[in-house]
Amino acid sequence: MIRRLLPAVAVLALVAVGCVPVTEPVGDVTKAELDKDLIGIWTGSDGKDALKIDAPVVKGNPKGLMRWTFAASKNEEPIWFFVATVGKEKYGNMCLSTGEAQKGSLDFAKDGAYEKWAKSKTRAYCVFHYTTGKDEISLNFGDEKAFKAVAGEAKLAQVNNTEVYVTPAGWLEKYLDKNGRDKVFPNGKSETFKRSK
Description:
Blueprint: E1 20-22, E2 40-44, E3 51-54, E4 66-70, E5 79-86, E6 89-97, H1 113-118, E7 123-133, E8 136-140, H2 144-153, H3 171-179, E9 190-195
Antiparallel strand pairs: 1-7, 2-3, 2-9, 3-4, 4-5, 5-6, 6-7, 7-8, 8-9
């Protein structure tokens, strides 16, 4: 599972198990805009582990970069991500590392941290699908087996000793645009979160 790439990604245990791990994201971070409907504190259906999503302004970071943390925890490292749209569907790209990530190395609240990661050869992403509604969001991290099959059909290689697939720039976006999201991100894998009042 992608969780071994970065301790902070234990957040995936909170939502539907699965991940779409790739070396190239859906969309372009330099053109990404904030999705203000995601900003806030969100509580899962079990009423535990609220998520906090915000968008701090940090010198050198792309304007569309957002931050995801556990609202009640001060020990979890933040997860940084940006969003993109393919057709009418919304996707997020969580920033990961396929290398030995040191504590704090992916905390883009520090000047220069994002730029260093963006230039690294260990840069990777976990892509998820999401929807927003009135005071709720739905997150879908995909079906690992289904994506593995899709990657196999496309003859994608994996980054050494990881489950991250080496993807040409724009490959996943083109796949989703042509085939839709249903196979890789089936509805049954979604988890709904309500906005905390």
